[in-house]
Amino acid sequence: MKKFFLFALGCLVFSFSASAQSTDTTIVFTSLVHDYGQIVQGSGPQTCKFEFTNTGTEAIVIQTVQASCGCTSPSYTREPVAPGGTGEILATYSPGAAMPFEKTITVRSNAQPSAIMLRIKGVVVAPQQPSASDL
Predict the structure, then answer these.
(1) How does strand 33-40 pair with strand 86-93?
(2) CB–CB of 89/49 below 8 Å?
(3) Which of 8, 22, 117, 135 holds its CA 20 to 30 A away from the CA of 105?
(4) How confident is the model at residue 25 (pLDDT cuts 50, 70, 90)?
């Protein structure tokens, strides 16, 4: 029983020391929110760019980038970003109905923090109709 207890204690100590060792991968975005302002309905897809920098000492690898809905399509830097290097997340929003919108893009990587939420927002407005005096 004593051997089992010592073995279990050794495993516990090893697991804590292994989890305490982490690489220095830090991702810093220049902005976490992009405000499109007003977008005229029917004007087509709108794209914005979120830039980030690797401020750590290990390469950053973006694992997944996922939008909160089908109206937003993300793309991203797929190759590892070296320390001091930069990368980008592109978010293309396809406006639909005339209304305010706010969408999120979740970025998962090997960096700290491992998950970051980016946001896009704005207002889709109906196109102006010509008045009788304009005709």
Answers:
(1) unpaired
(2) yes
(3) 22
(4) confident
pLDDT of residue 15: 42
Using alpha carbons, select from 50, 35, 56, 24 the residue that is nearest to residue 107. 50
At 24 the three-state DSSP class reads coil
Residue 106 neighbours by CB under 8 Å, 6+ apart: 64, 65, 66, 68, 115, 116, 117, 118
Rg (CA), the chain: 23
Minimal CA–CA distance to 64: which of 118, 117, 120, 107?
A: 107
- Extract the tokens encoding 94: 């396809």
Residues linked to residue 116 through DSSP beta bridges, in sequence order: 107
What are residue 113's phi and psi, to 5 degrees? -70, 155
